[in-house]
Amino acid sequence: MSVTSYAALPPDLVAEIRDGGLDPEAVYADIARALEEDLPGGADDTTSAATISADARGTADWQAREPGVVAGLAIAAMVFRYVMGDDVDITDRLDDGSRVAEGDVVMRVAGPTRGLLTAERTALNFASHLSGVATATASWVDALAGTNARVLDTRKTLPGWRALQKYAVRCGGGVNHRFSLADMAMVKDNHVISAGGVVPALEAVRAAYPHLPVEVEVTDLEQLRELLAAGCERILLDNMSSAMMAEAVQINAGRAVLEASGGLTIERAREVGETGVDFISVGALTHSVKVFDIGMDLVDEAVARGDR
């Protein structure tokens, strides 16, 4: 395999990935690591080398095998560019965030057949997983339609894939929570125990990091009242019933941003959204998502040209 350097990638593809909020050089490095798993030390794709003529060329359709939302197609395109450089033609690629039906062609790639098959699995791994995240997120967005609540992701991400998974959440219409432990202080139950209460914990963060946003978790309404009196601007309602959340919203009266969290299911999504909370955070968007089924199949050249 001849590796395409980062500098040789199409500028418009690099710009598209950057405009999506990702670091294109980091994405390129992710692709390089992924292909190293398949071709360690520059080894051959033995099956393709043995069964496909070196001068064979082909066209392959990427087809959605279920309805959902696609994400990561630009990254998949970078995989093909990494493997084949300019000797690949990528057409009919849908924008990330597009809703698709079963059977829709989401991208078409044409080039050396060996290269297409060498890149296939790596490209699909990126796009299928990220489309799964986007599709799951869109399901929550749909469930919350008509309420003021928006769905948030969490830090429950695959190690090394946080930027990619959070990008896919955005493609699905969701909102990103903090990216790292340094972006925002988030006071959880163990912090509260260590600090001696929700207000002492809030004050400790304010003293140490006065310009940092801070969110504090509460498990009952008394803790909520204490934090509101202390001027806390963001409060997480942990594992509360819908009735308790609705009461929390009334007590809050718009003073703080309220986030619901803890064991929430999509079946409860609308019920929770109708309590009036601002956000619902869902770890399952990234930690246990089902991959989206995309298939890549070589097509007859006459079909690819539209002759029949």
Q: How would the blueprint of this fold be written?
A:
Elements (H helix, E strand, L loop, with lengths): L10 H9 L4 H15 L7 H6 L5 E8 L3 E2 L3 H12 L4 E3 L7 E2 L4 E8 H31 L6 E3 L9 H10 L13 E3 L1 H7 L2 H11 L5 E5 L2 H9 L4 E5 L3 H11 L4 E5 L7 H5 L5 E3 L2 H4 L6 E6 L1 H5 L3
Number of helices: 13
What does the main sheet amount to? 6 strands, parallel
Radius of gyration, whole Å: 23 Å
Structural class: alpha/beta
Please identify which CATH superfamily of the largest domain we are dealing with: Aldolase class I
Q: Beta-strand level of the residues, as a percent range?
A: 15-25%
| Total strand segments | 12
What do you see in this structure?
The chain is 44% helix and 17% strand. It is α/β, with parallel strands linked by helices and 308 residues long. The protein has 2 domains: 6-131 and 293-305, Aldehyde Oxidoreductase, domain 3 (Alpha-Beta Complex), CATH 3.90.1170.20; 144-287, Aldolase class I (TIM Barrel, Alpha-Beta Barrel), CATH 3.20.20.70. The strands form 3 sheets. A 6-stranded parallel beta sheet has the order 6-11-10-9-8-7. The chain has a 4-stranded antiparallel beta sheet with strand order 3-5-1-12. Strand 8, helix 9 and strand 9 form a beta-alpha-beta unit. The relative contact order is 0.14.
